[in-house]
Amino acid sequence: METDRDAIHRRRKSCLAAMNRGDIDAVMEHYVEDAVLLFSGFPVLRGPEEISAHWEQVDRPDRDARLDTLDIRVVGDLAYEVALYEVTAVGDDGEPQVSAGKNVVVWRREDDGEWRLAVDICAADV
């Protein structure tokens, strides 16, 4: 039987794969309806329309996003994940550009039993 931690790892892997292939619809399947994004350099984004528009804005065909999960804690139907991220993409000058930072996600188990992103926080390293 799949543990909650394993289910969250599976969902995170699926979400990252969708991001890396530019499938915004598949990315959005990983968020709850009332999700909130709190990313460095961006306003607070709420709900599917704003979050989808953000991912479409930053989508790049050459992007490679990676995540190193440091911890996952589950309490009932909520969980949090602490991770480090690194995103590499080709810049306007043709050279690889790397963005790295920290990520904290609050996951929520929905009525269908799937874990989805409720709060997604990214803080870029300076």
Characterization of the model:
This protein is an alpha+beta fold and 126 residues long. The protein has a single domain, classed as Nuclear Transport Factor 2, Chain: A (Roll). Helix content is 27%, strand content 48%. The chain contains three helices and six strands. The protein has a six-stranded mixed beta sheet. Strand 5 and strand 6 form a beta hairpin. The longest helix has 17 residues, at 4-20. It is globular.
Write the layout of secondary structure elements.
Blueprint: H1 4-20, H2 24-28, E1 31-39, E2 45-46, H3 47-58, E3 64-75, E4 78-90, E5 96-109, E6 115-124
Which features would summarize this protein structure in a list?
six-stranded mixed beta sheet; single chain; alpha+beta; 3 helices; 48% strand; 126 residues; 6 strands; Nuclear Transport Factor 2, Chain: A
Helices, by number, come to: 3
CATH fold naming: Nuclear Transport Factor 2, Chain: A
Q: Give the N-to-C terminal Cα separation.
A: 41 Å
CATH architecture: Roll
Strand content: over 45%
Radius of gyration: 14 Å
Provide the helix percentage.
25-40%
Strand count: 6
Low-confidence stretches: none
Short description:
This protein is of the alpha+beta class and 126 residues long. The protein has 3 helices and 6 strands, in the order H-H-E-E-H-E-E-E-E.
